[in-house]
DNA sequence: CAATAGATCATCT
DNA sequence: GATGATCTATTGC
């Protein structure tokens, strides 16, 4: 199993993005907040690849900074950042140390801990929407900057690959919410899932 | 259904 | 001082 987890992070970023579809993310609620110690989980149904070197939309594109330090570390660790002052986004570091690249986790299907997710997202949010969207899933799973740099092989935030017989062939599309390189075919989804984040019209480009 | 405004802050210029 | 890998509520058709 340990070997299988390691293989989850290996190889080119695009391969990892595909392979993460169907994998399960486990989150243990930290001490000091409601539901501490409870384990929430979900099955990944939507990812986006952010490529090394050539991708102007990757946060690593302009070289390492304090914020993006973990994008240049070892694979299999988390890169978490705050977006629009309001939401957090969870990424899985890919590629060897020194090379900045990652996979953004965009949506999951809840598999356990539904009530805890609802406590954070809202009482009457439908199950399929609880972990749909990168900001929403972080809120539901209590993921924030504390998780930046976390080892995804162990600890309170961990990944487990999909069993062989549960793997699905992901569908490919352009990325969401970007101004540049948005059309690159780097978004992967389990088309059968109801938890895919909605397609939004691309943000207005300057005339 | 589609478009848009506003929330709100760590990071970078 | 400007900028977002977002989301929700609200408006208008």
Give the structure's gist in a few sentences.
The chain has 207 residues and is of the alpha+beta class. The chain has helices at 2-8, 13-20, 114-121, 134-140, and strands at 24-28, 39-50, 78-83, 87-93, 102-112, 157-160, 171-173, 187-189.
- Helical segment count: 4
Percent helix range: 10-25%
User: What global shape is seen?
Assistant: globular
Strand content: 15-25%
Unreliable spans are 200-207
Order of H and E elements? HHEEEEEHHEEE
- Let me know the largest β-sheet: 8 strands, antiparallel
Which structural class do the helices and strands define?
Answer: alpha+beta
Rounded to the nearest angstrom, the distance between the terminal CA atoms is 52 Å
- Annotation, overall tally of beta strands: 8
Rounded radius of gyration (Å): 16 Å
Mean pLDDT across every amino acid position: 92
Plain-language structure description:
Helix content is 14%, strand content 25%. The longest helix has 8 residues, at 13-20. Strands 1, 2, 3, 4, 5, 6, 7 and 8 form an 8-stranded antiparallel sheet that branches. The protein has 207 residues and is α+β, with helices and mostly antiparallel strands. The protein has helices at 2-8, 13-20, 114-121, 134-140, and strands at 24-28, 39-50, 78-83, 87-93, 102-112, 157-160, 171-173, 187-189. It contains 4 helices and 8 strands. It binds a DNA duplex (13 and 13 nucleotides) through residues 48, 50, 57-59, 62, 65-68, 81-87, 89, 91, 104, 106, 133-136, 145, 175-179, 182, 197, 200-201, 203.
């Amino acid at each position: 199993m340990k070997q299988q987890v390691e293989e989850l992070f290996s190889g080119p970023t695009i391969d990892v993005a595909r392979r993460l579809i169907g994998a399960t993310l486990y989150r243990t609620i930290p001490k000091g907040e409601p539901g501490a110690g409870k384990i929430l989980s979900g099955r990944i149904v939507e990812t986006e690849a952010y490529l090394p070197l050539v991708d102007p939309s990757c946060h690593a594109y302009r070289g390492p900074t304090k914020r993006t330090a973990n994008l240049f570390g070892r694979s299999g660790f988390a890169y978490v950042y705050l977006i629009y002052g309001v939401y957090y986004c969870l990424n899985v570091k890919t590629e060897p140390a020194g090379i900045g690249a990652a996979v953004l986790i965009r949506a999951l299907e809840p598999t356990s801990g539904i009530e805890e997710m609802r406590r954070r997202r809202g009482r009457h949010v439908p199950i399929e929407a609880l972990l749909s969207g990168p900001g929403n899933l972080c809120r539901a799973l209590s993921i924030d900057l504390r998780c930046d740099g976390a080892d995804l092989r162990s600890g309170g935030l961990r990944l487990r690959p999909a069993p062989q017989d549960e793997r699905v062939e992901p569908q490919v599309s352009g990325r969401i919410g970007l101004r540049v390189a948005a059309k690159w075919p780097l978004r992967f989804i389990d088309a059968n899932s109801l938890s895919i984040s909605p397609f939004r019209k691309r943000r207005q480009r300057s005339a």
